[in-house]
């Protein structure tokens, strides 16, 4: 995976260069724009995060953020405001526009770099695909396939398989499965777990034997 691209948008050129130097030294690919209009001309959709000043000649940072969040092509890009506007109303307005963080001037450059790292980490897509040989559980689309063929699971079966597959080798008692998979306001017995495990095994075909019963303890997923 390539370096994360950061666009610094501020009319204070010296500040831009200081931030660019420190972000580049940290391992980011940092670029600068001295106005919102210049930022737009650079193609904001190519960047992974914006450090955005609020008070700039022409289009303000708040207005630029409003436009970006209103466009599905750029709405996903994290924004950190860096500004001298430090009242509570200013901060609330910034977060109201969808900002991920709000840093007031003067600030520590090291703190800004740390905040950039934190925001990028929060926004990093998490792996949501669980696989074992021909089994694949996609937690994002809530789908399950065996050798690329879709298999319909109930929500309970899906959640059971996801839990067991993501903790291979770990034995879960029936009570632990009840507490992890079933809602608190639903009254079920441990026998319900056995019934759902039986149904799940039938749908796993040749992989049914991967869900083992540990007599006196519970269930686990093993090779």
Would you mind describing this structure in some detail?
This protein is an alpha/beta fold and 223 residues long. 39% of the residues lie in helices and 21% in strands. It contains eight helices and twelve strands. The protein has a five-stranded parallel β-sheet with strand order 2-1-3-4-5, sandwiched between helices. Strands 6-7-8-9 form a four-stranded antiparallel β-sheet, with helices on one face. Strand 7 and strand 8 form a beta hairpin. Helix 1 crosses helix 5, helix 6 packs across helix 8 and helix 7 crosses helix 8.
Question: How is the topology of this model organized?
Answer:
Blueprint: E1 5-9, H1 13-26, E2 29-33, H2 36-41, E3 49-52, H3 61-69, E4 79-83, H4 88-96, E5 101-104, H5 109-123, E6 129-132, E7 135-138, E8 143-146, E9 149-150, H6 155-166, E10 172-173, H7 174-181, H8 190-204, E11 211-214, E12 218-221
Parallel strand pairs: 1-2, 1-3, 3-4, 4-5
Antiparallel strand pairs: 6-7, 7-8, 8-9, 10-12, 11-12
Helix pairs in contact: 1-5, 6-8, 7-8
């Amino acid at each position: 995976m390539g370096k994360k691209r950061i666009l610094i948008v501020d009319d204070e050129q010296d500040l831009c260069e200081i931030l660019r130097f420190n972000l580049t030294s940290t391992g980011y690919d940092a670029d600068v724009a001295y106005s919102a209009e210049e930022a737009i001309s650079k193609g904001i959709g190519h960047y992974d995060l914006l450090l955005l000043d609020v008070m700039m000649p022409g289009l303000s940072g708040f207005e630029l953020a409003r436009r970006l969040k209103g466009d599905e092509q750029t709405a996903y890009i994290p924004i950190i405001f860096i500004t001298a506007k430090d009242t509570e109303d200013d901060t609330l307005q910034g977060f109201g526009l969808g900002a991920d963080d709000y840093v007031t001037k003067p600030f520590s450059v090291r703190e800004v770099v740390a905040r950039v790292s934190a925001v990028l980490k929060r926004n990093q897509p998490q792996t949501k695909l669980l696989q074992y040989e021909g089994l694949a559980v996609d937690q994002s689309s809530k789908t399950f396939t065996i050798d690329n063929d879709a298999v319909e699971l109930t929500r309970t079966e899906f959640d059971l398989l996801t839990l067991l597959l993501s903790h291979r080798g770990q034995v879960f008692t029936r009570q632990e499965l009840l507490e992890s998979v079933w809602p608190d306001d639903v009254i079920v017995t441990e026998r319900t777990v056995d019934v759902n495990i039986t149904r799940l095994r039938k749908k796993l075909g040749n992989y049914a034997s991967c869900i083992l019963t540990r007599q006196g303890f519970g269930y686990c997923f093993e090779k």
